[in-house]
Write a structure and sequence with these properties.
Length: 409
């Protein structure tokens, strides 16, 4: 007869690896008591120019929905139709059993739009950088990163066996010095954000491309925030500088202008074929689901068919930039719909974010390490679908809060 075996191991002890979790819990609790906790806010409505938080309407100045397409009837219908035709998931990775006609059609459309021979889609933009960068680099290669590059670029580089060199933000002179100092290098890759996600400034691509050519380095641009925003046709930073033929790889996400989730990388066919077969975040992860593919595809059609959306986005951008700087806020070197309000101190960023919420505006606090220490900021961003009334209301609230905290006179 089987008998239950009881052991006397005593009360379970907390393994020390979890010590840091207690510290995190305490930090969150303190922030909550100081009314300075601003993360994981729950939104009860679609991502529109106004959102509902805690049953209150707020002007949404904290979204990456630049073209205002996340609640567009055609985009939603495309997603619903894809679910009807293909169901809710792909049940496996692209490599083995998850590739649908929808994926191939979107990849062809993206390659044509970006002006490269081929493109491959991933399930998130983050996974694009993890998989593409790590699969392209080998031992003996060197990868050059701007210090303000997005976290997933840095993680992609860390996952490779290449040496990593970081250069000062937007400083092609330092990039050149670093390249010169590296000898016995197999291959070189430079990866920069086209539009830097926190401060909305643009990479100096003409100078970066020039340095890269001097050292036969490949150039990759992460255009998460440039796609649909910059360039005459919305093709992004390379188009903005008329350098599409000089940038070897362009990646983008579907989670911003393209109103969905997922990402892609476009380049020469051989290179994309390599990524398609070697990127671990693609081949060992489930495929982008039908609804997300179809939504991104429909959003791309609207991006191309309705340039007036981009024009309105730029009118709104100028209105917001001019409004914030004429109030006396420091807005850094923003050249895009991402407009930072530099506040300096981390805690001030949290307190101001909460106060702005009380005043009817949703913004994002950004603190170190997402910004350099002492350069905390409130990240604001506008959409094509904001009206002047929304933005004026938000600016009035920013003025009241900025004065209350002594940031402006
Ligand atoms: C510059 C940049 N690259 C990549 C990503 C990752 O994209 P996703 O959120 O679609 O995974 C982001 C997201 O915030 C980003 O800002």
């Amino acid at each position: 007869m089987l008998q239950a075996v009881t052991t006397s191991v005593g009360a379970p002890s907390q393994p020390s690896v979890f010590d840091k979790c207690r510290a995190m819990t305490e930090r969150v609790a303190i922030a909550r008591t100081e009314d300075a906790y601003c993360y994981f806010r729950v939104i009860e409505s679609p991502q529109e120019p106004e959102v509902v938080v805690g049953s209150r309407k707020l002007v949404m100045l904290g979204s990456n929905n630049y073209l205002g397409l996340t609640n567009h009837p055609k985009v939603k219908e495309a997603a619903v139709d894809a679910v009807r035709r293909f169901g809710t998931g792909c049940a496996g990775s692209r490599l083995l059993n998850g590739t649908l006609t929808l994926h191939e059609a979107l990849e062809a459309k993206l390659a044509r739009f970006i002006g490269k021979p081929a493109a491959v889609t991933f399930s998130t933009g983050f996974q694009v950088n993890l998989g593409a960068i790590s699969s392209l680099l080998d031992r003996g290669d060197v990868v050059y990163l701007d210090k303000q590059d997005h976290a997933c670029i840095i993680d992609g580089a860390r996952l490779s066996f290449a040496r990593i060199r970081k250069f000062e933000h937007n400083d092609p002179g330092e990039l050149r010095r670093r390249m010169k100092a590296d000898t016995g290098v197999r291959g070189r890759l430079v990866v920069v954000d086209g539009v830097f996600s926190m401060e909305g400034d643009i990479a100096p691509l003409p100078q970066i491309v020039q340095v890269a050519r001097e050292y036969e380095a490949a150039v990759m641009v992460d255009d998460a925030h440039g796609l649909g925003v910059l360039g005459r046709h919305g093709r992004g930073t390379a188009e903005h500088f008329d350098l599409e033929d000089h940038v070897h790889l362009i990646m983008g996400t579907f989670s911003k202008s393209l109103a969905s989730i997922g990402g892609f990388i476009a380049g020469e066919r051989e290179v994309i074929d390599h990524v398609r077969h070697a990127a671990r975040s693609l081949i060992f992860s489930a495929a982008l689901p039908p609804a997300s593919v179809a939504a991104a595809s429909a959003a791309l059609d609207i991006l191309e068919d309705e340039p007036e959306r981009r024009e309105q986005l730029w009118r709104n951008t100028r209105f917001l930039q001019d409004g914030l700087s004429s109030l006396g806020f420091s807005t850094g070197d923003s050249r895009t719909p991402v407009v930072p309000i530099i506040v300096g101190d981390d805690n001030l960023a949290f307190l101001m974010t909460r106060r702005l919420e009380e005043e009817g505006v949703f913004v994002n606090p950004v603190v170190s390490p997402a910004t350099p220490k002492g350069r905390a900021l409130l990240r604001t961003s506008c959409m094509a679908t904001h009206t002047e009334e929304h933005l004026s209301r938000a600016l009035e609230a920013c003025a009241r809060v900025g004065r209350a905290f002594g940031l402006i006179a």
